[in-house]
Write a structure and sequence with these properties.
The structure is a homodimer. Chain A is of the alpha+beta class. Chain A has two domains: about 130 residues, 60s Ribosomal Protein L30, Chain: A (2-Layer Sandwich); about 160 residues, Phosphoribosyl-aminoimidazole Synthetase, Chain A, domain 2. Chain A is about 35% helix and about 25% strand. In chain A, strand 3, helix 3 and strand 4 form a beta-alpha-beta unit. Chain A is globular and about 65 Å long. Chain A starts with a helix and ends in a 14-residue tail after the last strand. The C terminus of chain A is likely disordered. At the A-B interface, helix 1, strand 1, strand 2, helix 2 and strand 3 of A face helix 1, strand 1, strand 2, helix 2 and strand 3 of B. Chains A, B: It is an enzyme of class 2 (transferase). Chains A, B: It catalyses: thiamine phosphate + ATP = thiamine diphosphate + ADP.
Chain lengths: ~325, ~325
């Protein structure tokens, strides 16, 4: 099986949201008038972003999920993606499972694979994804204003607990480890939430490096500071099994849940609570935007706490 | 230096052709009414697509050039690209040179880097590029018709000769090796030619796997056959130094020149000759579209010749 057969066999399907998909020098796309494209790219490397024994079907789902999550954080509606894949060898069992997971995820979000590249090399997966949204309505990182409330979706930390377990830092009982694994392997991109936050949120991003680290990006780009109220941050029930310091690290510095963090004027407080009920999604106010340029963690008495861990940095840490 | 600093330092510049570039969850793009986007993705792996000792500045130019070449083959005007980069370590000398070459090439074609990703891993470079063109005017692989002439740009084979030299299959004298190296390292994407071929060519692609192998893609997608007249195929002067069999292999099966192959009605013959003069670019008629579904190589007496080599296949061959 050569390169062309491989693409045709595993990845070529009729292209939705595109005029021409896989098979020519490029795909062709039309964009509706009055809309913008939101474009994001991610690269995942074996041994760094996923374990060498990762289940290929779950992996296929996850690589698309983390890219969809970037679109969610912009408030965009996903349209299509490309896939570039370096494979150490042609392993048909692996490819069948990987493409099954990837394309199932694509179906769930009604997007199509419009192009890409395969080559031999150390297992590396690069995806670029595009979505569309009405011009000028994107949720940027630069829109937070003094006094805005800071919100997060979902309970945080289960994905990070799974990483701690797999790397031997903690030992979870089987059932609990499995639940946390599910969060790590199969994060749910918050697409519907992102779309509904257009016109409500002032700034947004997806938590991929940990709440505190990612909030720093909003502070930098919005030229503001932030305070986070430790006692209010919603964490996964399973984290009760962890010692307090590791629990805090998991939900404050773990980025593996791909939930959204966003800011909004206090005027929107009730609308956001209603939205959470409507989407059946936990939405919790965990702090507010303040003057300055740093992220502060406050205890129940609003006293500053030291921050002794850091967000995942792709170069500062080894996996 | 962490991941964010790295992007900001080496790759972030004001975005042209984009409403928002590097630095948020996604870039934002507006597309003109009546236009389509052409989207292509390529992945290059060290040791497979480039040599481990490759000059990083040339490499930066080349990775963008091969992606631009795909847009040329569609007749599109390049607009922007994303870059995903896996690096074994942060080597600032390498990064400075690589980004210099990449961004210089981007400047020459007036496009901007709008997003991407960096991570630690075996040196791998994934680029996705987009261009625009008036709706419905793309040069597809599926448009060739019986009786159409087959054309190629530029003399072919110098890039392949450089590969043969570097891998020890042939020994070129220094000056000649340097000239062939230049073609291999710094191919010129035929953007202007592609744009001008809109409305003239019936089908087009860029020669990245070798003339005969790539022509097969046109035959498959256009449901036709092709004959190529060996004596007419323009090859680089430097190839005279090669034995005949290797010379033929270089210009018929070498894909490293990134020239265009296209088909057009004989009615367009004169217009194409004029276009070659205007663009100061060799454009040569090398065959024609015939019934059937195979690519035949004919000698000066129009007798079929055996084809004893194959185009570069990313999986069938080891580098």
């Amino acid at each position: 099986m050569n390169e062309f057969d491989l693409i045709a066999h595993y990845f070529k399907r009729p292209a939705k949201n595109a005029d021409l998909g896989v098979g020519d020098d490029a795909a062709l796309i039309s964009v509706a008038a009055g809309h913008q494209l939101a474009i994001s790219a991610d690269m995942l490397v074996e041994g760094r972003h996923f374990f060498p024994d990762a289940d290929p079907e779950r992996l296929g789902r996850k690589v698309l999920a983390v890219n969809l999550s970037d679109l969610a954080a912009m408030g965009a509606t996903p349209s299509w993606f490309t896939l570039s894949l370096a494979l150490p060898k042609i392993d048909e069992t692996w490819l069948a499972a990987f493409s099954r997971g990837l394309l199932a995820m694509a179906d769930e979000y009604d997007i199509s694979l419009i192009g890409g590249d395969t080559t031999r090399g150390p297992l590396t997966i690069a995806i670029q994804i595009a979505g569309s949204l009405p011009r000028g309505q994107a949720l940027l990182r630069s829109g937070a204003r003094l006094g805005d409330e800071i919100w997060v979706s979902g309970p945080l930390g289960a994905g990070a607990a799974a990483v701690m377990h797999r790397t031997g830092r903690i030992k979870l009982v089987d059932e609990l480890a499995k639940r946390c694994d599910l969060r790590l392997d199969l994060p749910t991109p918050r697409i519907a939430l992102g779309q509904r936050l257009r016109g409500i949120a002032s700034a947004a991003l997806d938590i991929s490096d940990g709440l505190l680290a990612d909030l720093r990006h909003i502070c930098e780009q919005s030229a503001c500071g932030a305070e986070v109220w430790l006692e209010t941050v919603p964490f996964a029930e399973d984290l009760h099994a962890l010692p307090e310091s590791l629990r805090q690290e998991a939900f404050l510095a773990g980025g593996d849940d791909y939930e959204l963090c966003f800011t909004a004027s206090p005027d929107q407080h009730k609308a956001i609570i209603s939205l959470g009920v409507e989407l059946n999604l936990g939405l919790t106010c965990v702090g507010k935007i303040i003057p300055g340029h740093t992220v502060q963690l406050l205890d129940a008495n609003k006293q500053p706490l030291p921050i002794t861990f850091h967000g995942f940095d792709h170069f500062a840490y080894e996996s």
